[in-house]
Amino acid sequence: MDCGRRRLIVATAAVGGVGAITAAVPFLSSMLPSERAKAAGAPVEIDVGNLAPGQLITVEWRGKPVWILNRNQAMLDTLPKLDDAVADPKSEQKQQPEYCTNPTRSIKPNLLVAVGICTHLGCSPSSKFKTGAEEGMAADWPGGFLCPCHGSTFDFAGRVYKSKPAPTNLEVPPHTYLTDTRILIGEDKKGA
Ligand code: FES
Q1: What is the pLDDT of residue 145?
Q2: Is residue 124 in contact with ligand 1, taking CB distance under 6 Å?
Q3: Interatomic CA distance for residues 94 and 92, integer angstroms
Q4: 74-93 residue pLDDT tens
Q5: Residue 19: its H or E element
Q6: 143 touches 129 (CB < 8 A)
Q7: pLDDT of residue 41
Q8: Is the CB of 54 under 6 A from ligand 1?
Q9: CA dihedral (179, 181, 182, 186) positive or negative
Q10: For 47, which DSSP code?
Q11: Model pTM?
Q12: What is the DSSP secondary-structure string of 130-146?
């Protein structure tokens, strides 16, 4: 018996009167497509209206963690200073859609949207947002991300530092803004 059929029988057996059956049907019809859509890697919509400057949230898209970081001015100010320290400062290796090939690697300058998976062997980098040695980094650390597996470091645009195991910058997934604060991750205006 397939999974969907089993669920339908259980739901029918669990309800008593006609009213209860009527109530159960919309629930089933709204849940099942969403499960199917999830499995197929449907786009994920997220409202970032309450994301404070300097705050990062992680959402799941196609089983991958996607970071959304609302970079504050201090974070943004580090980026141009690091062009000589990172391996691919202009993101010429195409780890982002065309509309994010810019100095901040983003559509809106403050909001970084990036897949939180190291491009070396797939570990999850940790946030090391504090400058200096406070979080166990070098004294001149400007803030960014550290992959705990083999030490790759990334700046606030997900650009990998030179001479690190990760071969490329973090991936920026296709995404678009539905409104000023609602982001659709997994699809853009080109339908990617
Ligand atoms: S997996 Fe990140 S440095 Fe190796």
Answers
A1: 98
A2: no
A3: 5
A4: 999 999 999 999 999 999 99
A5: helix 18-39
A6: yes
A7: 78
A8: no
A9: positive
A10: E
A11: 0.80
A12: S-GGGGSS-TT--SEEE
Residue minimizing CA distance to atom 3 of ligand 1: 150
Q: What is the DSSP letter of 99?
A: G
Q: Residue 119, class by beta-carbon neighbours within 10 Å (0-12 exposed, 13-18 middle, 19+ buried)?
A: buried
Task: Report the atom number in ligand 1 closest to the C-alpha of 150.
Answer: 3
Please tell me the total number of residues recorded for the chain in this structure: 192
Q: How far is the CA of 36 from the centre of ligand 1 (A)?
A: 32
Closest to 146 in 3D by CA, of 130, 23, 43, 190: 130
How confident is the model over 96-142, as pLDDT tens digits?
999 999 999 999 999 999 999 999 999 999 999 999 999 999 999 99
- CB of 150 shorter than 6 A to ligand 1: yes
Domains and CATH numbers, the chain: 3-39 (no CATH), 44-185 (2.102.10.10)
| 159: its two tokens | 């650009």
User: Is the CB of 160 within 6 Å of ligand 1?
Assistant: no
Average pLDDT over residues 165-177: 97
What is the sign of the dihedral through the CA atoms of 82, 85, 91 and 92?
positive
Residue 105 Cβ inside 6 Å of ligand 1? The answer reads no
d(CA 129, CA 82): 15
